[in-house]
Amino acid sequence: MYDADGHELLDYTLAWGLLIAGSCHPRINAAVRDQLRRSYAVGAGHELEVRLAERLTGSAAGGGPGYVRFLRQRDRAGGAAPGAGGHRRDKILKFEGHYHGWMNNVLVSHPPPPADVGAARPVPALAAGQPAAEYADTLVAPWNDLDALRAAFAAHGDEIACVITEPLLANSGCCEPRPLLGRPAGDRPCPRRAGDLRRARAAFAPLLDGRTVHSGSNNGSPVAVAAALATLEVLSEPDTYDTMHAHGRAIRRHLEQEASRLGVDLVTCGAGSVFSVHFGLRKPPRCYADTLAADATAFARFPRPPCCTNGIYLLPDGRWYVGATHTDRELQRTLPAITAALQHRLRWRLTGGGGRGQH
């Protein structure tokens, strides 16, 4: 990518994680152009939706739960959730620090101010413009706290329509989920047993029988679905995920080794292609509350500005996204820039750079 002055930048923001296949991938561009020649929208089901649903569920290969609904964006999923299940349930349970879009019922406790950390009540994310009635049925639990989750279900189990979650706490520190019931984090099988499939079908029943509405002019947009199919084709290339994960691990390893060598307290945490850097911590955070002990302004000062000067574009909150187009060539540009940025931080500290907020 290029800035307004024409400087080339190596992008580790990926539009805040959206562009896992990178910007302007030729295969995705070709799929979108081909669909634009056919139609922009159809307002009904179409073949590409079926192909994408089969790809997502694995039903083309004889597995998977068999039910998929396409929405325009994640906000609509939050709006439709209270209609899920076989009974009228109005409450949603989300986790502290997780982000699920800009609808008022889910834009809460993202992130809460320090004084409200751990509160079971929803804390509006905006200082104005969020009517309290719109998030009155939203429950909040700390991430990685099974006791708090059990307590929420003990108190409201018959009222909870669903639990919504990021796969890991990516938007507030990249905290991985703790192992659940003896399974390693990330080892969550798809519902394939008869009982699981019945529950999956029951969750979709209100949509199928008309008790709740799933409408939207751009739901299942053929242009977006064509791009999604092409993206999955890119990601299905041999060794793609292994390469992305190795790239991310190499950056994390270099950050931690160089920080240790230079006497800088720093940890990284995350999973494969997404991770966060936390200055001032000596062990990875497990939840949003843990991240508050880090120096939240340090990454915006170092290493982000020096890295940007050296052509490495990063998010201001310490989050990194690695995509399918990041190769060893990009890695060889990135590692020296990290070293230079950490050395710059050390010089700034030794020359009396001052406390937080000073540059």
Automatic annotation (TrEMBL):
Q: What is the required cofactor set for this protein? A: pyridoxal 5'-phosphate
One Pfam family hit: Aminotran_3
| GO MF entry, a single one | pyridoxal phosphate binding
Query: Keywords in UniProt for this one?
Result: Pyridoxal phosphate
* Tagged with keyword Mitochondrion: no
Question: What family, per the record?
Answer: Belongs to the class-III pyridoxal-phosphate-dependent aminotransferase family.
* Name of the protein: Glutamate-1-semialdehyde 2,1-aminomutase
